[in-house]
Amino acid sequence: MGGRSIRSPISLDTKGNLRMKLNKRRLKATAFVVPAFLLHAAIVGIPALSLVFYAFTEWNGIGTPKFNGVENFRYMIIEDSDFHAALGNNLIYMAIFLTAPLVVGLLMALLTMRAGRFQMLYRALFFLPFVVSPVVAGRIFMIYYDPFVGITQFFKSVGWDSLADIMFIGNRSIALFSVAFVDYWHWWGFVMVIFLAGLHQVDRGLYEAAMLDGANSFQRFAHVTIPQLRPTIVTLAMITVIGSFLTFDYIYVMTQGGPAGATEIASTWIYKQAFTLFNAGYASSLSFAVCLACVLVYIGFRQIQKRGWDV
Amino acid sequence: MRKIAIHVTLVIVLMLHMVPLVTIFVNSLRSNSEISKALLALPQFFDLSNYPVAWVDGNYLVAFANTFIIDFGAVAIVVIVEVLAAYGLTKLDVYGKQAFIGYFVVGISVPAFAILVPLYFVFEPLGLTNSKLGMILIYAAIFMPFTLLFMRSYFVGIPRELEEAALIDGCSELQVLRRITLPLAMPMVTTVALIVFVNSYNEFLFANVFLQDPDEATVALAFYSFVGKYSLDYGTIFAAAIMTLVPIVLLYFILQRRFIEGLAAGGLKG
């Protein structure tokens, strides 16, 4: 959006004369866009801007916010070790989601491509968990993970004793992975669908050319499929990175950050600060920091996409 | 031979993938003591008695009414304002067009989380917490920007010549939109409506914060608090889960092509 392209009613015309005329036809045209803009600005735009103000205050959410400079940010960066640990968990979450669903999604997309007339059926069924409510998936998996009635009882009954003692949620070192698995189950079908659509756009001629050059199937995958899918991969990576810092539902519904902070992530920590501890000011600083990071990541990926990655 | 190997792999993955959903359904037909003994087993006899318990104690009638009012409200608002905006942004000479488009692009990257805290403390004194209207406005606003960009790119593909012919015949832009453009854009309108409906139906974060009165709860919330109350009564929990999932799964199977292909088209464009 350069300044040039933003046309305001007050502007210089081509001859350099000041033009200050509101064209009735253009005003009518603008009225088409105004409702959408107003709705979004009122609910999202203005509150998001006010967040920037609250971020520099001490506020319990009800009384008058008290300006306290950068104190919230000082506390966030230097003292709030719970938040640091939560960010660490966000990074683990990101690492999981930058690998498992992308690899499985791509693999299954490649297989589904070759499934002939059943392709649509496979696609529809793999995608199904994507529309399943996270609340339902999360709570039901908590039953499956339960050490007394869950899947471990099944392992015990078939004699897989080494698996039968796993505490999926109780064990602090695997709790985050157990929660992430549910999110993964819900998510990889979406990734597959996007890859499948990307694969369908690959020019068949490129494969034929590669075959004429004697490329084997792995070489065709590495030198045709992957480069052709690069824009898709970049987009999915962007969604994953941003999503990993905003993820909330599965963790909140399943563990609320427990046991003992093992699955605490930025969003559950912000939620606690705002609605359990009533530190609305500090919660705003945390949200502001996380959102700023997301917007920067978004801009960064946009730049990557513009700089010739869309080969 | 290779073809068979592919199908065998796909079917195995598919079966594993479906285990969670199938077990929810099977267990919804089993009694609590059966489930406690073995989670993965077939029902001894088909027992539907979990369903009425979950329906009544989960307050599902009220929850479904709330959910459908909120979700249809949000869908209606999104479709109306978005069709107008997409038409303006693609066909008309709008003041500050690039600024509007830039605003909505930034709007996509502003996470819903950013507005949770400030919006709550604005809505509370306005009486928009524990309110269907409040939820309709929130869902319409947070699900609008990315679907608006889907809609916009679809409108670009609708030829202006058709619309101009109608304009020459004396139609206003609004009439052209209603009689010419909108019928042509119906596939995308359906996709957008579906995306907004499914997202609103499953939304939890805002519902949990803004709807604390159990009589205003959506289905997702009703299920969440039902599990809290009946944490050891597994049979009814599974029945409640099925009731929560059925409307959305049915809708999905009827319209899955529009849903998947719309999302994929949007996802590819980024």
Question: What's a concise summary of this model?
Answer:
The complex is a heterodimer of chains A (311) and B (270). With 311 residues, chain A is mainly alpha-helical.
Largest sheet of chain A: 2 strands, antiparallel
CATH class of chain B: Mainly Alpha
| Molecular shape of chain B | globular
Walk across the major sheet of chain A and give the strand order: 1-2
| CATH architecture assignment name of chain A | Orthogonal Bundle
In round numbers, the mean pLDDT of chain B is 90
Silhouette of chain A: globular
**Oligomeric organization of the protein chains:** heterodimer
Binned strand content of chain B: under 5%
**In the CATH scheme, what's the topology name of chain B?**
MetI-like fold
Helix and strand composition category of chain A: mainly alpha
Greatest interface by residues involved = A-B, 104 and 100 residues
CATH architecture classification of chain B: Orthogonal Bundle
Radius of gyration of chain B from CA coordinates: 23 Å
Roughly what percent helix of chain B? Answer: over 70%
Overall pLDDT metric of chain A: 87
- What is the number of beta strands of chain A? 4
Radius of gyration of chain A: 25 Å
Structural class by secondary-structure content of chain B: mainly alpha
Number of extended strands of chain B: 0
Helix content of chain A: 55-70%
